[in-house]
Amino acid sequence: MKVKVITRSPDEYLRETKHDIHKVFRNYDPALHPFEAAREYTRALNAVKLDKVFAKPFLGSLDGHRDSVSCIAKHPKRLSTVVSGAFDGEIRVWDIPQRTCVREFVAHNGIVRGVVYVPSGNSFISVGDDKTIKTWNALIPQFGEDEEPVNTILSKSVLTGISHHRQSNIFATCGEIVQLWEESRNEAIRSYEWGVDTLHDIAFNMIETNTFAACASDRSIILYDMRDNGPLRKVIMKLRSNKVAWNPMEAFTFTCANEDYNLYTFDTRNLKSPVNVHMDHVGAVTYVDYAPTGKEFVSGSYDKTIRIFEADHGHSREIYHTKRMQRLTNVQWTLDNKFIISGSDEMNIRIWKARASEKLGPLRPRERAALRYSEALKEKFASHPQVKRISRHRHVPKHVYNAQSELRTIKTKEKRRENNRRIHSKPGEVPYVPEREKHVIKEVQ
Amino acid sequence: MKASTVIEFDVTNIKTKPWGRRQEDQRKQKFRKGKVQKKKIIKNKKQIYNTNKPKDVTKKRYEMPKETLDKYSRGEGVNISKVHTKIHRKKIEKKEDNIKFAAELSAKTEVLLTEDSGYLEADVGETTTQFTQKTIKDSVDITSAAKQFELKLEFGPYRSRYTRNGRHLVIGGKKGHVAAFDWITKRLHCEINVMESVHDVSFLHVETMFAVAQKDWVYIYDNQGIELHCVKKLNKVSRMEFLPYHFLLSTCSEEGYLSWLDVSIGQLISQYNTNLGRLSVLTQNPWNACLCLGHAKGVVSMWSPNTREPLAKMLCHKAPIMAVDVDSTGMYMSTSASNRELKIWDVRKLEGPVQEYKLINSATNLAFSQSKMLAVGFGNIVEVYKDCCTSAEKRPYLRHRFNNPISNFNFCPFEDVLGVSTAKGFTSLLVPGSGEPNIDTLEVNPFQSKSQRREAEVKALLDKVQPDLITLDPTIIAEVDVPSLRDKVEAKKKLLYLKPPKMSYAPRNKAKGKGGSVQLAKNKKIIQEQAKKEFIQATKNILPEVQKNKVKSKPYNVLDRFLPKNKK
User: Fold this and answer.
1) Do strands A339-344 and A328-333 pair parallel, antiparallel, or not at all (unpaired)?
2) Is the Cβ pair A28, B440 closer than 8 Å?
3) A338 reaches B (C-beta below 8 A)
4) For chain B, how many structural domains are there in total?
5) Which domain range does residue B84 map to?
6) pLDDT in tens, B419-455
7) Domain stops at, among B454, B474, B494
8) ipTM surpassing 0.85
9) Inside any domain, residue B568
10) Closest by CA position to B277, among listed B238, B335, B325, B240
11) Which among A5, A35, A43 has the least Cβ separation from residue B432?
12) What is the dihedral of CA A76, A80, A85, A89, to 10 degrees?
């Protein structure tokens, strides 16, 4: 007879001293872990609920400006520094972690239209309504020294925007015409015209660094190449685009913020129709900025809200608003992919988290593992009605809520009308037009 | 600006290339290197032919045996051929690969398991049945031998229950004696006399609380014997089962009521009359948390708190059912009836019997162990069968005879022990090979400390499964909700009996003198009737299929009298 009975010696299963951690023995046999699906579902539900509990995106505001904020620029090398210009010609430099203004001075007569750091971060360039381009040293002047620009260029035409080349010392301004400048010279090295009154925004591509795009008041977006003598192509849309932003990871993709409440992502290779239409705002979209990953972008709107979109999704994943925040003039996604900085009409600059419920600061490994696990569960059960309902729910201000329902009725009405027209006309007379083709008038070579 | 506090973060220098592409380049480089090496080999062809190199055996991967993989597999997976779009097919393929990989990894962890299961092997010419408890006790080590003990008690037929981690035991005597203790160290938690008849006992989710079904109501005591609750809504309870993942104390009463009490919030989730008379055979299916009731008509019915009808009914025997038990993986159900039958059923498919036995006596108690051993009790004898589910067993694995009739028994989880309570006490028997040798301390831990228990309790409460999820198939929550044809047809049928929605009619403000209240009322009626007509028309359009199914009655023909009459 051979016999063996299970015996577990406590020495093997218990920790030796109180200061040790508890011993863990795993057995992954499914028989010991019943209700796998139901328990995972419960955990997913809890994770989604916890996300809501921890969703406190607003971190703080920087106040000091005496007029609305007109432009904000990120420092290319320091996460802590941001420079902003206002409608009264004042420029302020901010220390983000301390939430203080470290430097303030009046830079222009009239509105500061644009401000941008040079790639080295040693100086920044501003343009204003007084038709000047001023270069400022990034260092704070010594005690007793005056705030004086390092260089001032008098432009012959109005200036409305500025963008700097990613690497070299070239920058472009827009206004009545697009001009290319070199930092060391006081004359424009090149100028481009394509029969439009005004261009109000300009942006250099981050990867194909020789190309740039500009938004014009004839509702068009024009593409340029620095190496060429004239502009390349333009696309004319139904309403004006306010701002154009290049995807920092895909050279051929840019997104524009449009007056018709939508954002449009274009592929430069085919401008006939946008790749994606991003809806959700209920007012003209005034600003758009990509995340450094190129997977998401943030937009600010005249409807007093900030929305975050995934670059390949048509609807926003997040909406930020506060009672006091007025119409947005500027939003920026910081280069560490964690924060959003917004400037608005009521003179404040606000700092938000890019992911509303993210925990700031270092994570311990177990904490990180737990977060990853819940992330995976949320994805697994994303389409379950309860999980979906909780994760999608957002409280929006009354005016947005009402505007949304109004827009919805307008849209259904139009759909109904079109359908009626289709029923009562010859087949094929009223074609089905996809949403993507509705908003572009034509592409001009 | 203080230069020391500033973090230098040069974005322009880092991202000369997107990350994805850089990785791709590296991969390409590796590939190129590999190619170059291959070319070299080809150049030295002659050398290769000359040297008789043995094949590289060490590089061959170890393949898991199929049974081990099957044990951890999560099923067949999605049928990809029916997915039309390429991108979704790719996504699903990737997901399936991940699931497969996870199953493989967990199968591989088997080599890390520390303990081996127990066994009892007979020599040639012997049978395991002939070994008595005394011989087993004599041939095992002292700690194991201490697990075999007997308590001689006087307060009438006892009932007993282990905790989920198999460490603690509660016993209750019919005449009011209730005791809870750590049976391994033999440390008594409490011993009380409730001064009432005790019908059943059960631990709640932790060993610090247990429920006792007394003469009228169910009481909940803590491990010091202090009465915490008296649940008067649970009246005349005969049997109790605790569903640990749902935190439900489910009871059946002598008056035919089934009830589920959520012990985490103290709420009665559901209570209703089964209309099946006195209920005294109750067990839970640990795989799907359904309750199995055995009835006098030979029927086993399965119940969830969500419907007042049983989820399933199985006619198992042609005689009253004496005992039912379901094994922990929810695969097999064993039933015994008063006509001496014992049957094993496939409870997942609700099919069977898988095995049929005719016993010498009718079995009054049944219990499955973690390793699917079955203990059968008749009168004062308990027999343990080893592979009775998969093959027809001829001889019991072990047998033990008591001096008193058995009232109930349970296998102790994670131990090779069968705890039998009889009319005159409690006996713990050694059944080698009955328990699961390897514990998962994150699931249930026999060695848990007080702080660990508290932490586990909080974790378990966070993962508490809602009672709505109790169904026959517990995996259904993770599956795609495809409405069956029957559901669709029934939903359409229901449309027939829908009432038209009420129209809200707000009259337009008209100038004074144009149309009075009579006109207004008329207009309202006209509009409402119009809406009603439209609604009826719309429902008719939806329902052509339903109407088609109705068989048109033919006009009666004289010759129809010769047709066979319809049976009603």
Assistant:
1) antiparallel
2) yes
3) no
4) 3
5) 65-112
6) 999 999 999 999 999 999 999 999 999 999 999 999 9
7) B474
8) no
9) no
10) B238
11) A5
12) -110
